[in-house]
Amino acid sequence: MAAGSKIEAAEVVLPCQELPPTLAFFTGALGFRIETIFPADEPREALVSGHGLRVRLAPGDGDPGLIRLVSANPGQSVTAPNGTRIEWTAPDPPMTPAPFEPAFVLTRVASGPAPGQGRAGMIYRDLIPGRLGGRYIASHIAVPGAGPVADWVHFHKVAFQLIFCRRGRVRLVYEDQGEPFWMGAGDCVLQPPRIRHRVLESADDLEVVELACPALHETIADHDLPLPTGRDLPGRIFEGQRFWLHRATQAPWSETGGGFKAQATGLEMASGGRVSVRVLRGTPGAQFGHPASEAELLFGFVLDGSLVLGSAGVHALSPGDAFVIPPGGAWSIEAETDVKLLEVSVGREPGGGS
Questions:
Q1: Distance CA 243, CA 307 (A)
Q2: Pairing of strands 314-317, 307-310
Q3: CB 127 within 8 A of CB 115
Q4: CA separation, residue 268 to residues 141, 207, 245, 311, 345 (Å)
Q5: Is the pLDDT assigned to residue 225 strictly greater than 50?
Q6: CA dist., res. 329 & res. 291, Å (int)
């Protein structure tokens, strides 16, 4: 495109060999209006507009395309005379978590999926490749270096979502949660469903662990809401949850037995009991375990150091390795070095969204 040129409008061109019946369908059945038509004596091409869309019906070959109409009262899917398919969808279809498929999962840095380019220039590493039937996704996300992040104001249609900062720092802003703030190593946030937010910048080779339900969920831009909003409403409820920021430097450690200590994050209270997140730390020889996991999801990520995991065998784990224990599965850990482990547990009914 030439420098300085300005786009004034955009239109979709659909092939149409016989204009009259197709034009009548678009203007009559679908409520479009005619913008241009020619030639007058025997029309062969027309431009119609409606519902935020401009469509040019013109002679030609090719796929007649698909138009999806958004309506609170959807109609029947039909086919226009020129072959264009017309489908309907609700303006805000409900989010339904996928059926859960339990499994023992072990994902190692050395042999797991290779990192790939994700949204806003971030590098993603999949920590639950099978997604447990599509119910959960966990990602190790990195933003090397420092500087602004090419993000925009958006929200997610999720049952829950959390972000734990492993290394570096990240500057964020959230809807009705005051001014932008920095989150550092050990800090964690609960992002309740549909809360608008934006990643502003990163520093010190940022790394975070993100976990959400369901695995496939929409990220929706909000081009109209400016952040920050100028309001600080820490008690605001978003679909049964509230925003929560855990500061690692301000939270105490408690004994768990066996030489391990734990730091709670407060996410269980903020999530309405859906999600519990804590960090376990131990010195060489420290042992910790459960005869059986009562959670639907028991997820672990080695933040630092090395340990031995006992579940479905014995597994030596290194920094960046992750695991999932299925419901009812016994598990234990033993520290080989000074170690820190992120532990996330989710109840058997993690909730839904709409």
A1: 32
A2: antiparallel
A3: no
A4: 23, 23, 12, 25, 9
A5: yes
A6: 7
Q: In what order do the strands lie in the sheet with 297-304?
A: 105-107, 322-325, 297-304, 339-346, 275-282, 260-264, 254-257
The secondary structure of 276-315 as a DSSP string is EEEEEEE-TT-EEEESS--SSEEEEEEEES-EEEESSSEE
Domains of the chain from N-terminus onward: 12-89 (3.10.180.10), 109-247 (2.60.120.10), 254-346 (2.60.120.10)
CA angle at 298 for the pair 144 and 106, rounded to the nearest 5°: 60
β-strand partners of 276: 345
pLDDT of residue 74: 79
Please tell me the predicted confidence (pLDDT) of residue 354: 29
Q: Taking the CA atoms of 267, 108, 112 and 109 in sequence, report the sign of the dihedral they define.
A: positive
What is the DSSP-derived secondary structure letter of residue 254? E
For 316, counting Cβ atoms within 10 Å of its Cβ (0-12 exposed, 13-18 middle, 19+ buried), the class is: exposed
Answering whether pTM is above 0.85, one says: yes
Judged against a pLDDT cut of 90, whether residue 352 lies above it is answered with no
Cα–Cα distance for residue pair 164/276, rounded to 1 Å:
13
H or E segment and range at residue 24: helix 19-24
Looking at residue 3, its pLDDT comes to 58
Joined together, the tokens standing for residue 72 give 């609170």
pLDDT at 119: 64
- Select the more confidently predicted residue: 292 or 226: 226
> Burial of 169 by CB count in 10 Å (0-12 exposed, 13-18 middle, 19+ buried)?
middle
Length of the chain: 354
Q: What is the rounded CA–CA span in Å between residue 178 and residue 200?
A: 14
pLDDT at 36 over 90: yes
Query: Could you report the per-residue pLDDT of 293-327, keeping only the tens digit for each?
Result: 888 999 999 999 999 999 999 999 999 999 999 99
Tokens of 349: 């009914």
Best CA proximity match to 346, nearest among 135, 147, 184? 135
**CB count in 10 Å sphere of residue 184:** 16
